[in-house]
Design goal:
- The complex is a heterodimer of chains A (about 110) and B (about 110).
- The radius of gyration of chain A is 13 Å and the shape is globular.
- The termini of chain A are far apart.
- In chain A, the strands form 2 sheets. In chain A, strands 2, 4, 5, 6, 9, 10 and 11 form a 7-stranded mixed sheet that branches.
- Chain A is mainly β and about 110 residues long.
- Chain A contains no helices and 11 strands.
- By secondary structure, chain B is an all-beta fold.
- Chain B is about 0% helix and about 55% strand.
- Chain B contains no helices and 11 strands.
- In chain B, the strands form 2 sheets. In chain B, strands 2, 4, 5, 9, 10 and 11 form a 6-stranded mixed sheet that branches. In chain B, strands 1-3-8-7-6 form a 5-stranded antiparallel sheet, with no helix packed on it.
- Chain B is globular.
- The chains are: A mainly beta (about 110), B mainly beta (about 110).
């Protein structure tokens, strides 16, 4: 894998609790992305970053926030987890155009 | 209209046949196009990128781009059972922020 680590890899949490997922890269790539993947929906972009402290919303950003205080880390926070946010979350990084993915985080909200 | 559209399939082809996967995109100014392969339970992996009109070949894979028709395709020659996976099309819409949008993916089944 292209120097991307997602943590945790699996998490079960209760409805209404905040949850933070971490994406860490060792490639010094400029762009970082958070996607969620659900059956029948492919990969849907939640938020992405084009530099430190530079982020923008994707297609399904409601209920999520992100932060990128340093190049290597991109955090995704579910402010108050809901069952509809049960999903597999993927982080990706890109220096220019081609993106490479982390191993994914399986999140279950009960 | 979704930004990137694919037929979800499944597309079933016999071993040794050519598999043809298609993708359309809505933003005419898009410049970069990608095909990813994803096995069940795994992360997507990049298999092809294409940036200009025409064909680009890499082994058994050929990516085809037609910007006028806003269409990109992936051909897999001599399909093997190991090619059975979901294939995701991805597009960079025009921006200076690196936004990357995926289609919903096409499931390919190659039958021995």
């Amino acid at each position: 894998d292209a120097g991307i680590t997602q943590s945790p890899r699996h998490k079960v949490t209760e409805t209404g609790t905040p949850v933070t997922l971490r994406c860490h890269q060792t490639e010094n790539h400029r762009y970082m992305y958070w996607y969620r993947q659900d059956p029948g929906h492919g990969l849907r972009l939640i938020h992405y970053s084009y530099g430190v402290k530079d982020t923008d919303k994707g297609e399904v950003s409601d209920g999520y926030s992100v932060s990128r205080s340093k190049t290597e880390d991109f955090l995704l926070t579910l402010e108050s987890a809901t069952s509809s946010q049960t999903s597999v979350y993927f982080c990706a990084i890109s220096q220019d155009t081609e993106a490479f993915f982390g191993q994914g985080t399986r999140l279950t909200v009960v | 209209q979704k930004e990137v559209e694919q037929n979800s399939g499944p597309l079933s082809v016999p071993e040794g046949a050519i598999a043809s996967l298609n993708c359309t995109y809505s933003d005419r100014g898009s410049q970069s196009f990608f095909w990813y392969r994803q096995y069940s339970g795994k992360s997507p992996e990049l298999i092809m990128s294409i940036y200009s009109n025409g064909d680009k070949e890499d082994g058994r894979f050929t990516a085809q781009l037609n910007k006028a028709s806003q269409y990109v395709s992936l051909l897999i020659r001599d399909s093997q059972p190991s090619d059975s996976a979901t294939y995701l099309c991805a597009v960079n819409p025009p921006s200076n922020t690196g936004k990357l949008i995926f289609g919903q993916g096409t499931t390919l089944q190659v039958k021995p």
